[in-house]
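User: I'm writing a short report section on ligand binding and want a predicted complex to refer to. Could you take this sequence and 4AD and write out the structure as tokens? A short remark afterwards would be nice.
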Amino acid sequence: MSNGGRTKISELLKSADRNVEVTVKGWVRTKRGNKNVAFVALNDGSTIHNIQVVADVASFDEELLKKITTGACLRVDGLLVDSLGSGQPVEVQARRIEVYGTADPESYPLQKKGHSLEFLREIAYLRPRTNTFGAVLRIRHAMAYAIHKYFNDRGFYYLHTPLITGSDAEGAGAMFQVTTLDLENVPRNPEGKVDYSQDFFGKECNLTVSGQLEGELGALALSQIYTFGPTFRAENSNTPRHLAEFWMIEPEMAFYELEDNMELAEDFLKYLIRYALDNCMDDLEFLNKMFDEGLIDRLRFVVENDFVRLDYTEGIDILLASGRKFEFPVAWGVDLQSEHERYLVEEHFKKPVILINYPKDIKAFYMKQNDDGKTVRAMDVLFPKIGEIIGGSEREADYGKLNARVEELGMSKESLWWYLDTRRWGSAPHSGFGLGFERLLLFVTGMGNIRDVIPFPRTPKNAEF
Ligand code: 4AD
Ligand code: MG
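Assistant: Sure. The structure tokens for the complex follow:
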């Protein structure tokens, strides 16, 4: 394959060939030199490393060399030779240079000096050209690939669940409405309510918060499925761990009980982290050096150690006994905040924790009810620096119990009838969980803000680009 008529820089840097003609294309990171020779660091995104282009000033038109500034895009034909400098094994001795696109230094925002992550968020359309975002985006790709590989190798089917739905899977009500009604002139029925029968789908619809409910339909036929797609939550949470649009991976397995579910979640996370260590080391080393000195050690630690498994009730006891003053007070029945989760993981156990058997009142309606009448077979996987990375459960498979819970919570049976029906015909024990893709990436890259592990973040008051 011609690869656009060039050899990728990642390949050139590994190549054993010398004194051969090559063509390289990419964006200028820096140019330096003197009146005899110019050194241009070129990057094409195939690796964190640049290739050095050396141009003999006398052999090139002065006007052409002037156009080679940070951000410009070049084609360079030349000889691949051993590098005299210590920074790289090879360099390209330029014979011919073509400037595809200039980048005026007066206006191009990404200059050589380092920029703050906050500033880069404002120019998210350009930040993939930085070392940091190049590394993050390559790791993001590698993790997406590893997720599909993990499930494919284990006989799970990739199920595409709808993005537009009429139900609220998590029962949390934080949904974005989808409508084609004219907001300036909303049709009303005789009772004065919005007349959704005139809307595009003939009823009220929203963007999905989770593919789980449809995923369960798949699992109760194909045995093991997973989803991997965007999900949407209109929670007004401006935190470093929440996005309004995020990607989620949701495996769902027939015949799995909570124990099996925990085992899968732990194996899955370790596989993904090991995959990053085995395949993304260049980028991880860069991030380790620039942002988070403990990153690679932390990744290794998680791969090598068993996760702690603990009852919610025991977790609460530990928090109460800690003597710590938390911003949100602890008591049995409260939903854990990130400060509580991180205390358990980072200070008490110093390991990832799987917390199970949560109070039913703080968890979704579909979770299997325990015999104590108070708790459900929920599991959250809690990670250092992140808090909750996975949420899941064994599902309530009993029609009567599920129906009663839906009624108790005053949920709409009209929108859930098909889900309830799965418990009428051929119901089976089953379990599943959801991994937040960007939470995983926060952990694997060591970045501190979820806005910096997705190309174009959507958060309250922000949908630029
Ligand atoms: O715990 P959650 O809400 O669980 C579900 O949606 C279930 N339907 C999953 C299942 O059992 N199939 O979300 C799952 C995970 C969380 O643990 C977290 O990692 C991530 O999704 N997540 C978010 N990530 C970024 N921004 C947000 N606003 C998120 N909300 C949840
Ligand atoms: Mg959760």
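A remark for your report: The pocket of 4AD (ligand 1) is lined by residues 169-170, 210, 212, 233, 235, 242-243, 246, 248, 250, 388-393, 432-434, 436, 438-439 (CB under 6 Å). The mean pLDDT is 96.
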